Amino acid sequence: MRHIILIITLFYCFSGYLRAEDPFLDSLKNHMVYTSQIDLAKQLKDSGIQYKNKGDYPKALLLYHASMDIYLEHGDSIGVANCYNNIGVVYKNTNKKELAIDAFYSSIELNSKINNRSGLSNNYLNLANFHFTENNLNKAITFFNKSKELLIKGEQTKTLANIYNGLGIILSDENYPNRDYEEANEEFHHALEIYEKLNDSTLIAVVLNNMGLLAEKQSNYHRALEYYMKSLEIKETFVQKKGRLVSYLNIGNIYRKLEQYNNSLDYYLKGLALAQEMGDAPRYLNLTSNIVQIKIALGDDVEANWYFNEYRALRDSLYNRDKTRQLVELQVMYETEQTERALEKQILATEAKTRENKHLTITLIAVSLLTILSVGFFLHRQNAREQLREQKEHIYQQKLQAIKQEQDLEVLNAMMLGQEKERQRIAEDLHDRLGAKLSAIRLFHTPEHHAENYAYISRLLNETIIETREISHNLASGTLEKFGLINALEDLFETLQATRQIQTRFSVFSKADLSDVSIDRTLLSIVQELTNNTIKHAEASSIHCQVSCFPDSSFNLVYEDNGKGFNVDQLNGQGIGLSNIKTRLLPFNGTLAIDSSPGKGATFIIDIPAA
Q1: N- to C-terminal Cα distance for the chain?
Q2: What phi and psi, each to the nearest 5 degrees, are found at residue 595?
Q3: Which of 27, 153, 423, 453 has the fewest CB atoms within 10 Å, measured from its CB?
Q4: CATH number corresponding to 1-115
Q5: DSSP state, 499?
Q6: What confidence score (pLDDT) does residue 448 get?
Q7: DSSP secondary structure code for residue 56 in this structure
């Protein structure tokens, strides 16, 4: 581990030397006023955050790395961990998932070593947001709660408010099986209370908009309108236009559901003008289709037809720019095929009553739509066939690789089981066979048989029996009783890593070993069983284990693999020996929490409270 940190440090120092020649970075440094190198590093990091917020991710990464170079040079672990955390956010926003995860866990490892609870809380918050964007809602909630547990009780911070807001979004998600609108509403109110105390207008507007969405899902349109209006009132003081555009669209939708069509039209038109100013084609297209429906509801078929032609012209222009895929995505997001056909039928029905001479125009519209749909369907089908061919080839290569991995893992598993069985067999033989015989000899040599040598023989036999028991005990205990649980686990994962069949990572929050040897033995056997299950069943390529031993003797262990996962609800106490693991933890009041689903890997969290 020390060699790895040294290599990383040298790499960043060297790469920092190269980046120092960057004209943009040199120019920015020349305009900064700083009192020390650490102050310069902080200013570079803060500038990186500004560029990240503006969406200029390459410059943000450049500034984060320049800041990290200085922190590494001065041995500032908190600064390095913070840079890793920010780099992970950039990679998450640019959809570089593996790099994002690596950066977050690098930050976690550093913060764990220096017991930086605030930094760890931010790490877990970012992991929660990452899993939320990946639609892993259960994992997102797990990391939100882990982030909350590390915060100081009673202290109301922006991080805590962000956690409440994130939990509210998940609990109000219609796709979340355990959604709870009432609890979501409570979480949003907790977040709003803290944002108001911090006077953070931007996030107040965001959480008000979320509360409006929740009320709308509950069909409480008047309350939703109240929240949307409050959010818009705050957003109108900002320079940012995107937030106002979202509010115009949401308020227009509510008024339409309340059948207040003139009010709905006013906000749709405001949004349309702003979308045109911003060049936001998707929302312009969505607003145009909504205005068509409002015009039809108001009986204004002339303007309805005009806006429909506007909608069609914009859609066709996107298509003519060779953006077929973007067009399909826009249609999925803002206009389904059924909605288009419904709009077309409404236009046809309205114009048939007033302008019989426009049948030809309507027919041309229908032909155009069918032509576009046909071309789109053809291109989509061609793309689907190509993807199917690539998938078949990929599946074939995966099967070949899986066969090889399975053979290698079987050899590895057999080796580990064989070593353990042989060690146990030797221990049992020494204790049961040799020890029993020596005890029998001692009983045989009584004072009546050898009175003159009895004391000597008895002492010699006693020492032999004690030595036999010690050998048996040492063979059975191994690394665990010599060096403790942490070193035993390190030895286990280093052994697995050395096979090059599976990647392992072992992190320690604190190296204070447990005082109870029986707990050490139980935890070591549980981890051995989990690794055995991963090797035999999970088809995983990596394992990550994190151990936290706290000063009050409480203990936490998190074991994760990226295997094929399983449905926790369908286990019924069977499958991978999970019932045995829970039973082993009972004497210590320990608990086991499992988070897994098919295709998402598996996470096992073990907690043992203070004695």
Answers
A1: 32
A2: -130, 110
A3: 153
A4: 1.25.40.10
A5: T
A6: 56
A7: -
- CATH number for the segment(s) 138-143+150-238: 1.25.40.10
Q: Which of 135-139, 198-202, 539-543, 567-571 has the lowest mean pLDDT?
A: 567-571
In the numeric block, the tokens 């040799």 are attached to 434
Grouping H, G, I as helix, E, B as strand and the rest as coil, residue 546 is: strand
Q: Which CATH superfamily is domain 483-611 in?
A: Histidine kinase-like ATPase, C-terminal domain (3.30.565.10)
Residue 410: per-residue pLDDT: 59
Report pLDDT for 391. Answer: 81
pLDDT tens figures, 162-213: 999 999 999 999 888 888 999 999 999 999 999 999 999 999 999 999 999 9
Are the CB atoms for 543 and 537 separated by under 8 Å?
Answer: no
The two structure tokens encoding residue 218: 């509950």
Name residues whose C-beta falls within 8 Å of residue 263's C-beta, 6 or more positions apart in sequence. 255
- Every domain range in the chain assigned CATH 1.25.40.10: 1-115, 138-143+150-238, 241-354
Give the burial string for 181-199 (b: 16+ CB within 10 Å, else e).
eeebbebbebbbebbeeee
> Alpha carbon of 315 to those of 18, 105, 251: distances in Å?
47, 44, 25
Q: Taking 90 as the threshold, does the pLDDT of residue 535 lie above it?
A: no
Binned at pLDDT 50, 70 and 90, residue 17 comes out as: very low
DSSP-derived pairing of the beta strands 555-561 and 602-608? antiparallel
Residue 374, judged by CB atoms within 10 A of its CB (0-12, 13-18, 19+), counts as exposed
Separation in Å, CA 481 to CA 487, 513, 532, 557, 585 = 10, 11, 22, 19, 19
Distances (CA, A) of 560 to 401, 538, 542, 543, 545: 22, 11, 8, 6, 6
The pair of structure tokens assigned to 160 is 């805590």
pLDDT tens figures, 126-150: 999 999 888 899 999 999 999 988 8
Nearest CA-CA partner of 503 in 105, 110, 92, 112: 105
Helices of type H across 77-157: 77-93, 97-113, 117-133, 137-149
Sheet holding 555-561, edge to edge: 503-508, 542-549, 555-561, 602-608, 591-596
Distance separating alpha carbons of residues 175 and 396, to the nearest angstrom: 33
237: which residues sit within 8 A by CB, 6+ positions away? 201
